[in-house]
């Protein structure tokens, strides 16, 4: 034994001769019992624990009220309060000319949706390309998003009045005044335009976040190849932001169907001649003024189905377009 080496432990020689090797290997091969909160069990449970609060909130505050509302839509109002009436409420909705006008306006919103998405998309593109004054434009464009719809509606009521400053400017330019809020053929377009102006700041922020994930080398390569701005947008930016565009399309459509009540209430009150009714305004009238909650629940169910169908159709169409590109 060399100087400084420790003497062998008792039984080591026996282990070397084979007497204790097998028990030692067996002891090493036995796995330790799993402890709660560590190891593979924790890795498997972690995603469910993190998602559980959001799922709980979604179920309690969204799915349960939705189920109760759909169930309530098959009951009656007034003398038949609480009684099962089948599809009578839905039949009455289809016979109501005001609700049919609201559905037509939904179709108009779907047609105007590409414009409502293209405006913040183009502005975000210009800001991303750092046009002169892009920092100021970023702040100015987002400013309307922080204003209350009631305030915005009151401001535009003054601007768009028949004797207001906009018509005065048109009259000075030799163009006759326009009844922006009193003409049934124009009023809905006016309210939609104000809504787009008031809300496109949020979509602009989403687009700018999407640009942060865009590969800048592709833009540099397009510039070197001499691509025009339209070609860069079509062949580089749009394919690179396909997921962002899908998200903005769906959220913008939902906002147009469910967030225009304040503007409608302040600017037109559903008029003139019911031409600016949307399902959400119709729901408020039936619930708040006519005291017909079951009919309002039926209209809410129809609105939910419209949003679901339109949203799924938009996603499918955008995905197909992205694959073709």
UniProtKB/TrEMBL annotation:
CDD domains with a match to the protein in the record: TM_PBP2
Annotated keywords: Cell membrane, Membrane, Transmembrane, Transmembrane helix, Transport
Membrane-spanning residues: 45-68, 106-129, 141-162, 186-214, 247-267, 294-318
Region feature Disordered, mapped onto this chain: 1-36
SUPFAM superfamilies cross-referenced by the UniProt entry: MetI-like
Pfam families: BPD_transp_1
Topology relative to the membrane: Multi-pass membrane protein
Superkingdom: Bacteria
KW Membrane (keyword) present: yes
Ranges where the ABC transmembrane type-1 domain occurs: 98-314
Subcellular locations according to the entry: Cell membrane
Key word Nucleotide-binding present: no
Main localisation: membrane
InterPro entries per record: MetI-like, MetI-like_sf, UgpAE/MalFG_permease
Family listed: Belongs to the binding-protein-dependent transport system permease family.
Protein name in the entry: Sugar ABC transporter permease
